[in-house]
Design a protein that fits this description.
Elements (H helix, E strand, L loop, with lengths): L2 H7 L4 H5 L11 H12 L2 H10 L2 E5 L1 H6 L10 E2 L6 E5 L13 E5 L1 H7 L6 E4 L7 E3 L3 H13 L20 H7 L2 H7 L13 H12 L4 H12 L6 H17 L5 H14 L15 H27 L13 H17 L5 H18 L3 H16 L6 H13 L6 H4 L4
Parallel strand pairs: 3-5
Antiparallel strand pairs: 1-4, 2-3, 5-6
Helix pairs in contact: 3-4, 4-7, 6-7, 8-16, 9-18, 11-15, 13-14, 14-17, 15-16, 15-17, 17-18
Length: 418
């Protein structure tokens, strides 16, 4: 790496680098904190190392984004104060404004900018108007340096607890509701308490909802959010089987043996064969269908029992404890769905916040602790995706659980569940 080229990256800001620090500035996230410290030292190589690990956002009109969702339009949005070249402004996630109907933002990274930069005479502006701002020339030689940093630094980030220290709730009901979605936030290294969600950018947030949830309109988002908040998106069979065990535990005042659980579940299914409201959504037709339901429930009990044994071995569940319901998986996703809907502009900030508050309320009603909530969420996720492989669908959540239950900055250690 040519040190002279790297020094030139910071030339527009040499005067600022020599200036005394801002008396007090609370950097919103770890990214802006790192950029600010590197700028104060005049360490532009470190500044670009941080940029290489960050998501960068650029404003775009919503009409353009809707008309050409696969096309990114770079807009001249800022003029550098010294010496005054045209700049393209990019913001890190902690510096984004609250989502508005227009404009929207799209997300890129430093490697993509190095490849797709529109014109050599337009400079790169990072977080203009803030204490961590910087302006850089963007000639082919400079972009080669960007590429060098991008190639040596890991991106995208994963498996990190990231907090919005300024501009995001840290305590109270909204923070509690946001923390219900923290397992997924840690997995993706997204800001757990960012109520003003931009996520992966407007176009990608819409694409995410279309591909994973078949949501392409506000009405479909509303139905999905209500289904999650009502605990109706998970399989009703899971709830039925777990409910049998919970009833037995209350009635007998202790642990429930698996054979007893299986026997009672089979008996209840057969008794309800003519009235299946609590088991399936369609009426069985004859003994063969009833016995198929029994066999499926028996397999499910086996799967749940094996998952819980693994959970205990890995510290997700205490000894002699079991999962009562998996509605936490719905509630945690409801917390995230509120933000995904905001990022996709299927709702506004006030609606998203009300959904987050409700996710927190129903979670507190149905669970007693973050640990109990976490085990229920992870069991639901594994029953849906993992197929007893104990692969990434499980490992990612186990890792996130451990971070959230041990990191001193974790919302689970700083926000009471009840």
């Amino acid at each position: 790496m040519n040190p002279d080229l790297m020094a030139n990256q910071g030339a527009p800001n040499e005067a600022e680098a020599a200036a005394p620090p801002v008396p007090f500035w609370q950097a919103p996230t770890d990214t802006e904190h790192g950029l600010y410290e590197a700028k104060m030292r005049g360490d532009w190589a470190a500044y670009f190392d941080i940029l290489a690990t960050a998501d960068l956002y650029h404003a775009m009109s919503r009409a353009q984004a809707d008309a050409k969702p696969g096309w990114l339009r770079y807009n001249v949005t800022y003029w550098s104060p010294q010496p005054g070249p045209k700049c393209l402004a990019f913001f890190t996630d902690g510096m984004l404004p609250a989502p508005a109907p227009d404009p929207v933002f799209f997300q890129v990274d430093l490697a993509q900018l190095a490849e797709d930069w529109p014109q050599d005479d337009e400079w790169l502006a990072i977080n203009p108007g803030t204490p961590c701002e910087a302006f850089f020339p963007a000639t082919a030689a400079h972009r080669q340096a960007w590429r060098w940093h991008a190639d040596r630094m890991p991106h995208p980030r994963r498996h990190q607890l990231r907090t919005l220290w300024a501009g995001g709730p840290l305590h109270g009901p909204v923070a509690h509701g946001l923390a219900c979605g923290a397992l997924l936030c840690v997995k993706n290294a997204s800001l757990w308490n960012a109520m003003g969600w931009h996520g992966t950018g407007y176009v990608r947030e819409r694409r995410r909802l279309a591909e994973w949830w078949e949501i392409t309109s506000r009405e479909e988002w509303l139905r999905a959010e209500e289904g999650l908040l009502s605990g109706r998106m998970s399989s009703p069979v899971w709830g039925f089987v777990l409910g049998i065990r919970s009833t037995l535990a209350r009635d007998f005042g202790g642990a429930v043996e698996m054979d007893h659980w299986r026997h009672v579940t089979s008996r209840v299914i057969r008794q309800r064969a003519a009235d299946p409201e609590g088991v399936t959504t369609t009426a069985p037709h004859g003994d063969s269908e009833t016995e198929s339901l029994v066999a499926g429930a028996q397999r499910l009990i086996g799967r749940i029992t094996r998952y819980e044994a693994r959970f205990r071995a890995d510290g997700l569940l205490a000894e002699n404890r079991f999962v009562h319901t998996v509605e936490a998986w719905d509630y945690g996703r409801a917390s995230k769905m509120a933000r995904w809907g905001l990022g996709a502009r299927y709702c506004d900030l006030a609606e998203a916040e009300q959904a987050v508050l409700r996710a927190g309320r129903v979670s507190r009603i149905n669970y007693r602790s973050w640990e109990e909530f976490s085990a229920a969420y992870i069991l639901g996720r594994c029953l849906h995706f993992d197929e007893e492989e104990f692969g990434d669908w499980y490992g990612e959540m186990l890792n996130a659980h451990r971070i959230l239950t041990t990191d001193p900055n974790s919302p689970w250690l700083n926000i009471p569940f009840k």
